[in-house]
Write a structure and sequence with these properties.
The structure holds two protein chains of two kinds. Chain A is an alpha/beta fold. Chain A has helices spanning 45-53, 94-104, 109-123, 138-150, 168-183, 283-290, 310-313, 333-343, 348-362, 377-389, 407-423; strands at 5-13, 22-29, 34-38, 60-67, 78-81, 156-160, 187-191, 204-208, 214-217, 244-252, 258-267, 272-276, 298-303, 317-320, 395-399, 427-432, 444-449, 452-455. Chain A is 29% helix and 24% strand. In chain A, strands 5-6-7-3-8-9 form a six-stranded mixed β-sheet, with helices on both faces. The radius of gyration of chain A is 24 Å and the shape is globular. The relative contact order of chain A is 0.12. The model of chain A has no long low-confidence stretch (mean pLDDT 86). By secondary structure, chain B is mostly helical. The longest helix of chain B is centred in the last third of the chain and has 29 residues, at 182-210. Chain B is flat and about 60 Å long. Classes of the chains: A alpha/beta, B mainly alpha. Chains A and B meet through helix 2, helix 3, helix 7, strand 14 and helix 8 of A and helix 1, helix 8 and helix 9 of B.
């Protein structure tokens, strides 16, 4: 049986980098096979996918990548789904987005509609061609991206960390699709920290280590979704003032449609509350409402006994929004963590002590003088977390804090949060799109679905 | 519901969710919007500004852009007017600065609104196709894509703003009236905003390259839009 893809002793270093991110990678893939690539954050999984697709910047390179399905223009017959679906929607309507690749291949416009419809049908996206892409759910956007690649007739599809974007329902639809396309001979490489949802489709596991070397792995060795061991749940507090008090909240979208309504809950001191729900359920909107950046259409929300205002929440509330790396702006880790303390006019001696404490707590003491911009994805995440922990807030609000992190970092962060809540009495409220990440260590679980946020 | 193949361009356009009501070719629309913007710079007397405002209002109604469009644009106008009137008053004094400041803000607003309407009512592929008639197709793609992703970028910047404000950055509206807080604005918002814009641009470029953009010296266009 011929291989669709053969990688021989491939090594690669980014332009200007001294270190090779991939070293002597050997791999082969046949038609209809599904391979899973695991490995810690920053081990080079995305780089390998980009190398296969042929879209890496021209750095130092050794070895070769042989794609049997080479097209007439010399490019490999592989399609790639990158991590963020939002930046991959290059058309404003379903039809124009799927046709983008055909436009670039100079396909006759008269032949486009038929091919676009066939691709949409293959991925099971039943939407009109003139449907606005902004109105699709995250799962539908994912299917649209797959259709936009499928229309270019690839023999191999490369998918980068779908679980970071998709909720369980979206993942199960994707699995169904992978199984269907696989049976028609298409090969897949799926990069995933948590390959569990794809076990049924995966034939071979590969693992990239921190040095960029690849080895065959097994389902048992492949990273499992992280679980925090069951922790002691706190008893209901006596009649003390809740840190968050929300009553009959109604929040409306831009055109006056309710995002959710009748939301009421309290969060007491030292308690851990998880809000889970599918993509687009309004979890981030809830957090914006609680932090005073979004005014509810009706109902009341109080934080620390008063209406939330960003200015008065400083120091008492630590808030980590999605992809916290983009909030990093200082030149050293020390300065990054010191920033909120300086703004709170913390004394110099106390400032240094707090920074030392938080560095130890997060296990990043050795990075204190490093530039935060040059750290790995997981390390940046920890620096951003350390920065909001430094003022020792009474309440932490975290928006999907585990997205894109490998099992080791997820466990580290979750254990850190449990320690903070148990030892320092910090209350924690966090959102996730995967229910398995919340069950064991949350005192209260809110379920955000169908325009309601209810106690589970 | 699946559309049948071989649709007429007009049929599709009339069903494009953001373009109900009027069915004008993108090229003509671009020309009209450009003319309206140019007129805004030329219209200095109050009556001319009123006439131009009415024309813009009629177009907004014809495109059925909705009340949310009005709300958003009026908010921008109020903020912009307050800033410009404040700066004019500082420079020329309260008596001589207020009205000219307001008129300048009105002009700027009328110059800016037609562009927003054009972006909101024209599918990206149509914008690219229209622009490719007057500039190289790669540049047309970059320009039309930049317009499309403006919303995403503003969302990203909003996220940075909220996180930094809670971390202690003096960038809240109450803070930025004070010039001594402006370094924080640059440091905590503008610099990370630029870095994030470059990251988003890089991701879009990568996504386009992954779908063979730039492989050929020319490209065809999707007939649906």
């Amino acid at each position: 049986m011929r291989d669709i893809l053969r990688i021989e002793n491939f090594s690669y270093a980014y332009p200007g980098a001294e270190r090779y991110i991939l070293r002597d990678v050997d791999m082969e893939i046949g038609p209809g096979e599904c391979h899973c690539l695991t490995g810690p954050t920053g081990s080079g999984k995305t780089t390998l996918l980009m190398a296969i697709k042929g879209i890496l910047p021209s750095g130092q390179q050794q070895g070769k990548i042989v794609c049997e399905g080479i097209k007439e223009d010399g490019s490999p017959s592989a399609g790639i789904v990158l991590q963020d679906p939002e930046t991959q929607l290059l058309g404003s309507t379903v039809g124009s987005d799927v046709a983008f690749g055909l436009e670039n291949q100079c396909v006759d416009p008269g032949l486009m509609t038929e091919r676009v419809e066939a691709a949409l049908s293959a991925v099971g996206l039943e939407k009109p061609l003139d449907f606005n892409v902004r109105r699709l759910s995250m799962g539908q956007k994912y299917r649209l991206i797959l259709a936009s690649l499928f229309v270019m007739k690839p023999e191999l599809l490369l998918i980068d960390e779908p679980a970071a974007q998709l909720d369980p329902e979206g993942l199960s639809h994707l699995l169904e699709l992978v199984l269907r396309l696989k049976s028609s001979g298409m090969a897949f490489i799926i990069c995933e920290h948590n390959p569990e949802p794809f076990y049924k489709a995966i034939d071979t596991f590969w693992e990239l280590d921190k040095e960029g070397s690849i080895s065959r792995s097994s389902p048992r060795n492949a990273a499992l979704s992280f679980r925090v061991s069951e922790t002691k749940k706190l008893p209901e507090p006596d009649n003390c003032l809740p840190l968050i008090h929300a009553k009959d909240l109604l929040v409306e979208g831009q055109k006056g449609y309710p995002i959710w309504s009748d939301v009421s809950f309290d969060l007491g001191a030292g308690r851990r509350m998880a809000v889970w729900g599918p993509n687009g359920a309004g979890k981030t909107t809830l957090l914006r409402c609680l932090t005073g950046f979004l005014k509810p259409a009706s109902g009341t929300v109080e934080m620390f006994g008063r209406r939330p205002e960003p200015k008065v929440l400083r120091g008492r509330l630590g808030c980590l929004f999605q992809n916290p790396q983009k909030q990093i702006f200082e030149t050293t880790v020390f300065e990054e963590i010191a920033f909120p303390l300086k703004r709170l006019r913390t004394e110099e001696r106390l400032l240094e002590k707090r920074i030392q404490n938080v560095l130890e707590l997060c296990g990043i003491e050795d990075l204190v003088l490093a530039s935060p911009h040059k750290l790995s994805y997981g390390q940046k995440h920890l620096v951003a977390l350390a920065s909001i922990l430094a003022p020792e807030p009474e309440l932490l609000i975290l928006d999907d804090p585990f997205a894109g992190l490998d099992t080791a970092y997820c466990s580290r962060i979750s254990e850190l949060l449990v320690t903070l809540s148990q030892e320092q009495g910090t209350s924690v409220l966090w959102t996730v799109h995967n229910p398995s990440q919340v069950s064991n260590w949350a005192d209260i679980i809110l379920n955000a679905q169908g325009g309601r946020i209810t106690l589970q | 519901m699946r559309r049948e193949g071989g649709l007429l361009c007009n049929e599709v356009m009339s069903r494009y969710p953001d373009q109900q009501g009027m069915n004008i070719p993108a090229g003509l629309k671009l020309l009209c919007c450009t003319l309206l913007s140019i007129c805004a710079f030329a219209a200095r007397p109050v009556w001319a500004l009123i006439v131009l405002s009415l024309i813009n209002l009629l177009i907004v109604l014809a495109f059925r852009l909705g009340i949310s469009f009005f709300k958003k644009e009026i908010r921008v106008f109020i903020w912009q007017s307050l800033i410009i009137m404040g700066l004019y008053s500082l420079r020329f004094g309260f008596d001589h600065g207020l009205l000219p400041g307001f008129l300048t803000s009105w002009q700027l607003f009328l110059a800016f609104v037609p562009g927003v309407m054009f972006i909101q009512t024209t599918p990206r592929s149509q914008v690219a196709r229209t622009l490719s008639r007057i500039m190289p197709w790669k540049m047309a793609f970059v320009l039309s894509t930049s317009m499309q992703f403006m919303g995403l970028l503003l969302e990203e910047i909003r996220g940075i703003y909220e996180a930094q404000a809670l971390k202690g950055g003096r960038i809240l509206l109450k803070d930025i009236w004070k010039p001594w807080n402006w370094p924080d604005l640059v440091h905590c918002l503008i610099v990370p905003g630029i870095v994030q814009s470059m990251a988003v641009a890089n991701q879009i470029a990568l996504a386009a390259k992954a779908r063979d953009f730039g492989k050929n010296n020319n490209r065809t266009y999707w007939p649906g839009d």
